[in-house]
Structures are given as C-alpha cells and as structure tokens.
Amino acid sequence: GVGKPDKKVKTTCPFCGVGCNYDLNIKDGKLIGVTSNLTSVVNGRLTCVKGRFGTDYVHSPERLTTPLIKKNGKFVEASWEEALDLIATKFKEIKDTYGSDALAAVSSARCVNEENYIMQKFMRAVIGTNNVDHCARICHAPTVAGLAASFGSGAMTNSINEAPQCKVIFLIGGNPTEAHPVIGAKIRQALRNGATLIVADPRRIELAGKAHVWMQLRPGTDIALINGMMRIILKAGWHDQNFINSCTTDFDKMADVIEKYTPEYVEDITGVPKHLLMEAARIYATAERASIFYTLGITEHICGTDNVMSLANLAMLTGNVGKLYSGVNPMRGQNNVQGSCDMGALPNVYSGYQAVTNAAAREKFEKAWGVKLSDKVGLMMPDMFDASIAGKLKAMYVMGEDPIRSDGDAHHVRKGFEHLEFLVVQNIFMTETGKLADVILPAASFAEKDGSFTNCERRVQRVRQAIEPIGNSRPDWQIIRDLSNKMGYPMSYSHPSEIMDEMASLSPMFAGLSFERIDEKGLQWPVPDKEHPGSQYLHVDGKFACGLGVFKAIDHQPPAELPDAEYPFMLTTGRILYHYCLTTAGYSKHLTEYRPEERAMIHPDDAKRLNIADQDYITVTSRRGTVQARAWVTTDVLPGGIWMSFHYHACPTNEVTMGCGDKVTKTYEYKVCAVKVEKT
Ligand code: SF4
Asked: Does the keyword Iron apply (predicted)?
C-alpha cells in the first residue's frame, strides 16, 4: 500500500466538464490517491474511474521539467531566463516586421480560468491581436453560438443536480455513461425515480438499452429528426401556445420550414421508423416538464450550430425552458471549456462575452489595460493553420493543447505548424505539436496550482494547489506574466485571485465572483454582484437573456463527406469511459491498463463480408490518412458504420477525420467522414 496521506486537499477534477470535487491525498509532497469529499455539491461521494484513478499522470516520469530550446534540430535544456528572453525577442521581431496579426495563440480548456484570462489579455494587450482561440472550437463552439442566438446565452440552462428529479429526459448525441459518467449516474437515478428516457443516437450506447424510446438515426440527420418531432407536436396541438406568444419570436418562419418533415420523409432521411418518432414526440411534448441533454453528437457536424438551434426550437415550442427540470443542457467536454470561453479565449469576445467589435466594451478594456486594442475579430483555430500555410501567420504560442492530435485532418494541421517561423509550446508533457516547437515551456499540472474551473452547469469552483510544481515547471499564469514583463508590458499578479478580481471588475455577468465567494460551493453564473447567490437555471419564466427567444427556420443538411464506392463506411469518433485526452490520461498507467488499445467498432455483417474477426487488426483509411486498430465486432453500430475513439498515441484517429466543419464556428465534423476498412 501507499500508506496514510499527510494531508487531503479538496479540488476540482481535471478531466470532464461535470466538475466533480474530491480530495487529493498527499504524502511526502506526492499525490498518492483520490478520495471522495462529501461536501462536494455537484457529485457528493460519486466520481468516475478517470477522476478516481487517472490523476497518476501528475507524477509520470515523462513530465517536462525544464524549458527546452531547439538548436540545430535538437532540444537543449535552457534556463527560464534564456527561454523567455528568446520568446520575447522573437515575438517582438515578428510583430515589428509583419504586424500583430502575424501572431496567434491557442489557449486551453485544461487550464484554470485565470490562465485563460491572462492569455487572452497577453495576446490582446501585449501582442495587439485578437488571434486567440482554444479547443471549444473543436467541440462546443456551436453550443456557444447556437444557444446565444436562440436564447441569448450559450450555456447549459439548468443544473446537474436537477437530473435525478427530471420526469422526461431526451438524450441526443451524447453518451454520458462514458463521457460524463457522473451525469450518466444521475440520469440512471432519474430512471430509478420513474423518469421516462428518450435516446437518439446512431450507436446502442448504454442508456439506449434503458430508454423507453431509442431512435437509431443515421449520423448527421438530427435536424430532420427534430423537425419531424416538432411537426408531429404542432399537428397534435401539444405545443405551448402561451409560451410561444409571450416569450418568443419568429415562430411562423420555423413552422413553414418544418411543414415538409412528415414522418415518412423523416424516416427516409434518418432511418428512424415513424412510430418511434411519433412516440418520442408524444412523450417529450406531453410531459409537464422535459429536459434535453446533448453533447458533441449534435455539435460536431457541418451544421453543428443549426443542430443546437433546432434543439432550442423544440424546447421553446413546448415551453420546456426557463424552469426547473427542463431546458437545453449541453454537457461540456473538457473540465474548463466553459470557463475558457467565459474568460474570452475566443477571437471575437473579451471575458463575459463582450464583443471586440463593440466600441464601448473595447474602450472599457482599453482603459483598464492602458493600451489601444484591435477591433478586428481574430482567427479561429482552423483558420490559423490556413493562414500559416498562406504565409500570413508567422508565430504561434500554444498553451495546454496538442492540435496535431486533437484537430480534424492532422496532416493539414501539422503542415500549418511546419510553415510557422516560430512556435512556442507550453505543456506538461511533450506533444506531437511540441515536437515542432522552437521553444518548449514546462507547465505545472492542476494539482500544482491555484485557480478555478467552471463546469458545464456554469459553476465556478476552486482548484487548489496540493503539491509543489514538478521539477522546474511553473503554473501557466506565472509564465505568461513573466513573459509579458519581459516584453515591456507590466503584469504584477502574485496570485490567481487577483486575476479573477480584475476579470470580475470588467465582466458584468461575473462581477460577483471572488475566490472568497467560490471557496465552499462555487457559484453558478450569471452572478452580477457580490451579494448575488448565483443562478441555478437560466431564462427564468421565459425571460430570455436576449429578451424574446428566437425560433430559427432550419432545414436538413447532409454531411460534407458521404460514403461512396471507394470509401464505403461512415466513421464517427467519440470518447470511452477509461480515457481522456492524450496529454493527461494518456500518461496514466492505471487508465492505460484498463483499456490498452484502440478498438474500432464494426457491424457483424460488414465484418463477415470483409473476413474480419473480433480482435483482428484492421486498417481504416480516408482520403486524408490511415490508422490501425483492433476490430470490435458488435451490433451496437449500424451496418456501414465504424466507431473509434481518439485516445491512443498508437492510433491517432485524427489522421483520418475531416478538416472541414460547421459553417458558423468551423468546428470539425468529427462525427461523419467516409473511410474504407481492410483487414491488416
Ligand atoms: Fe472527473 Fe468527470 Fe469523472 Fe467527475 S465524471 S470524476 S469530473 S472525469
């Protein structure tokens, strides 16, 4: 055994957006385990295998412990002084030669709020560009855009702990059992309490087996399905006319568009038998209250933002928003992807979703930061790679992300990085992207620093330092502060709480936040003043953040790449229970032991035709790349479908996925691409 801990430090889990709290058990300055902390508001004693066993990556011998500078193609150890001097000089040189917009940064949904705030401030105030983005771009950016357009606020409307009390749950494009396990547990709790569950998913996920209605739709046909449900609801008179009249606008335009989505037409597009569609519509619309839960099966499509707005349409049509146990509830992916958006690590907004194009907002930040700010919306992440290849972007600063492994069409992303003049990568491990860097800066992990994460129900919670930074690593916020000082823009923060105070003073929706106030239970935004108790659910009584909720008229749009004779299968990617991102969980011995390699799901009919047996190695190839994995022959996927995760160094699935995405937010269409499959 590892013995008794010397101390326990309550903190927030660094993996998924549920935001469980638990105690890090510390002995002799080392993290030796995780135990429940019953004061945790979100999860109580619950955690999942990732939170419980996955944090051993913190002490992996592979951790980066000192800055590295590439000299003659090889990384050489360097002092902080030397590394930061070099970066400051190169950034200044590039800014002076090509202008501020020749630089860009990738901020991080893995880092604390304060680090995201300081990163976007660094890019905007010191470099002078709005070229800052992060991995929300590749997951829930359509949620932020779609829910903001429909409701005026791009976040989960309700709270995680309402789930067990829900009477009807409509789960679409999400597999919480594996990707958000504590929410999965709460949905199962609702079922034990007598709730009715509708699932729409192309795969037989665990909850599909427990659902009253499971609609196994073809990937990329969500809009048709939702429009079909809405048409049935309208024809049957199950809609909420009062809510529509008093709380929404543009209903008629939407109603016109859905007219053609007869159950037969919808069955043609989605493959869902019409009796199931009608049953789902009836259950959802006739419940006193019904709650929608979704995740990346909705957002990661070329029509991701439209998919999100379709769900908002459905909720408004039936008055299922603005009250307890209802709403539209995106389960955010990364631990702090809500927070990194909130903090303005996006090319179009400062913290608190204040637009860079809004003169009054810009002037406020100019005054506070003492500089002139750019009014030009910055580059989204996929555009950064294009701009680099086109010779317009010359330098990048990548914090806490590994785009070559996580973004669609890895080949193109790699090419983007290769074209840069200067690349700085700041991370806790060496990454694929890091291998191309000119300078590597070693960062501290979540266990080694203070700060806050914001979970998917908008709860800002404390992250607490439990051990000293490993080796010579430093918290990201200190690195950015020191770099800023080197570049001649003074930053004097001595603790992340000071960064939160500055952020709160400039962001009306977060004005009530402080480390003191979030200490015990966190606070759910909006929290507009220091007395405000936080907001359990949004749009109370149909009073939307934007005034009236907006119906959107949306038509079905097929995926960008459909199967053909050469690439006859449709690949979908997603998460599994035992893993998380490569740069943290990928270094957890415990998690790797549970499930050591990639398993690609394939239907038995297809496997038989291709002479593939369960556990055989197969090669999956798209127009962009190729990977190998072991076959998992299962009826859980549709014939013609392949399902893979993206959790393994030995099987980098994003070599295969698509480089194009949602027309509004550019979120890659990870859920559909055409591939061929061969026995290896
Ligand atoms: Fe961590 Fe998410 Fe698991 Fe909770 S459900 S322990 S936040 S990975």
From this structure: yes
Is there a domain that residue 558 lies in?
no
27/166 same-domain check: no
Res. 3 pLDDT band, cuts 50 70 90:
confident
Distance 17 CA to ligand 1 centre (A): 7
Decide: 182 in ligand 1 pocket, CB within 6 A. Answer: yes
| Whole-number pLDDT of residue 315 | 98
Ligand 1 pocket residue status of 181, Cβ below 6 Å: yes
Question: The CATH number of the domain where 307 resides is what?
Answer: 3.40.228.10
Most confident of 466-470, 646-650, 657-661: 466-470
Predicted confidence (pLDDT) per residue in 421-465, tens digit:
999 999 999 999 999 999 999 999 999 999 999 999 999 999 999
Other beta carbons within 10 angstroms of residue 227's beta carbon come to: 26
Question: What separation in Å is there between the alpha carbon of 663 and the centre of ligand 1?
Answer: 31
User: Going by CA atoms, what residue is nearest to atom 1 of ligand 1?
Assistant: 51
Give yes or no: residues 55 and 73 share one domain.
no
Whose CA is closest to 292, among 309, 271, 275, 270?
309
* Residue 51 in contact with ligand 1 by CB distance below 6 A: yes
For a pLDDT cut of 90, what percent of the chain falls above it? 92
What global pTM score does this model have? Answer: 0.95
Q: Where are the alpha helices (DSSP H) in 105-158?
A: 113-121, 141-151
Residue 637: Cβ within 10 Å count: 24
Mean pLDDT score, 380-389 = 97
Q: How far is the CA of 52 from the centre of ligand 1 (A)?
A: 8
Residue 476 Cα to ligand 1 middle (Å): 23
Q: Are 193 and 203 contacting, i.e. CB atoms less than 8 angstroms apart?
A: no
Check pocket membership of 177 for ligand 1, CB cut-off 6 A. Answer: no
Strands (E) in 331-466, as ranges, are 349-350, 354-355, 395-399, 422-427, 439-442, 451-454, 459-463
Residues 364 and 468 in one domain: yes
User: Quick one: 416 and 308 in the same domain?
Assistant: no
Strands 641-644 and 626-633: unpaired
β-bridge pairing 349-350 and 327-330: unpaired
Specify the CATH number for the domain of residue 415.
3.40.50.740
Please work out whether the CB of residue 434 comes within 6 Å of at least one atom of ligand 1.
Answer: no
Using the mean position of ligand 1's atoms as its centre, give its distance from the Cα of residue 49 in Å. 8
**Structure confidence by residue, pLDDT tens digits, 12-53:** 999 999 999 999 999 999 999 999 999 999 999 999 999 999
pLDDT digits (tens, 9 = 90+) for 519-559: 999 999 999 999 999 999 999 999 998 999 999 999 999 99
Mean pLDDT of the chain: 96
CB of 591 closer than 6 A to ligand 1? Answer: no
Is the C-beta atom of 16 inside 6 A of ligand 1?
yes
Report DSSP letters for 248-282, one per residue: EE-HHHHHHHHTT--HHHHHHHH---HHHHHHHHH
| 580 CA → ligand 1 middle, Å | 10
- Ligand 1 pocket test target in 15, 22, 578 with most atoms within 8 Å of CB: 15
Does ligand 1 come within 6 angstroms of the Cβ of 19?
A: yes
Question: Do residues 578 and 656 share a domain?
Answer: yes
